[in-house]
């Protein structure tokens, strides 16, 4: 019996990108496997779901933490308000790139099929942990760190979605909006107030 050739993650993504651009989200992992010359099982060694494969192929993003990779190193350093603004800008950038792919995936899904964006759990956990550790250091007002983390994430994603769906004549400046939002959020987090 011949041994299955090994394939790199980038080769799988190249095949997936090609197939998804041809067939849309309705393409199957079998379609991708056939294009790559491997079994479907080989795909699932690299990507846990079709959605994960789709978003990695269409966005070029394969890392586990997308918008918080160096956040842990910031704990106790610098200005937490500035850190939150940097995170908000990264979330907005990521959401802006992801939104067209999500819209494509939602538009071609089959009845009853659930399409989820790439897992943001590692980033959300890192953001929540960062806020919690800054709270423990007294650099952010103590409380439930999940609340400001969710507030930040949902506001930025909601803003990005509204900007994507709105007429271009009414677009707001993303940097100005996020700076104003983080300043407003900071009023409730500032331990010196």
Description:
The longest helix is centred in the middle third of the chain and has 29 residues, at 80-108. This protein has helices at residues 9-23, 29-36, 40-46, 50-59, 71-74, 80-108, 121-136, 146-165, 174-189. The protein has two domains: 9-59, Orthogonal Bundle (Arc Repressor Mutant, subunit A), CATH 1.10.10.60; 71-189, Tetracycline Repressor, domain 2 (Orthogonal Bundle), CATH 1.10.357. Helices cover 65% and strands 0% of the residues. Helix 1 (9-23) packs across helix 2, helix 6 (80-108) packs across helix 8 (146-165) and helix 8 (146-165) packs antiparallel against helix 9 (174-189).
Largest sheet: none
How much strand?
A: under 5%
**Class of secondary structure makeup:** mainly alpha
- Fraction of helical residues: 55-70%
* Rg value: 20 Å
How far apart the termini lie comes to: 71 Å
Whole-number average pLDDT? Answer: 83
* Total number of helices: 9
What top-tier CATH class of the largest domain fits best?
Answer: Mainly Alpha
Low-pLDDT stretches are: none
State the CATH architecture of the largest domain: Orthogonal Bundle
The count of DSSP E runs of length 2 or more, i.e. the number of strands, is: 0
State the CATH topology of the largest domain. Answer: Tetracycline Repressor, domain 2
Concise account of the structure shown:
With 193 residues, the chain is mainly α. The chain is 65% helix and 0% strand.
What secondary-structure arrangement, pairings included, does this model have?
Layout: H1 9-23, H2 29-36, H3 40-46, H4 50-59, H5 71-74, H6 80-108, H7 121-136, H8 146-165, H9 174-189
Helix pairs in contact: 1-2, 1-4, 6-8, 6-9, 7-8, 8-9
């Amino acid at each position: 019996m011949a041994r299955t050739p090994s394939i790199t993650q980038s080769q799988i993504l190249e095949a997936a990108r090609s197939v998804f651009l041809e067939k849309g989200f309705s393409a199957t992992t079998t379609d991708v496997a056939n294009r790559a010359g491997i079994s479907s099982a080989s795909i699932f060694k690299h990507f846990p779901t079709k959605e994960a494969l789709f978003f990695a192929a269409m966005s070029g993003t394969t890392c586990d933490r997308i918008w918080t990779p160096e956040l842990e190193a910031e704990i106790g350093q610098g200005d937490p308000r500035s850190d939150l603004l940097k995170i908000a800008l990264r979330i907005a950038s990521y959401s802006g790139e992801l939104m067209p792919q999500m819209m494509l995936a939602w538009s071609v899904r089959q009845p009853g099929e659930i399409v989820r964006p790439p897992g943001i759990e590692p980033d959300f956990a890192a953001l929540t942990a960062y806020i919690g550790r800054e709270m423990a250091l007294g650099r952010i007002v103590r409380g439930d760190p999940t609340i400001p983390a969710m507030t930040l994430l949902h506001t930025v994603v909601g803003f990005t979605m509204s900007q994507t769906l709105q007429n271009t004549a009414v677009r707001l400046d993303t940097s100005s909006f996020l700076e104003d939002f983080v300043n407003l959020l900071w009023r409730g987090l500032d331990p010196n107030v």
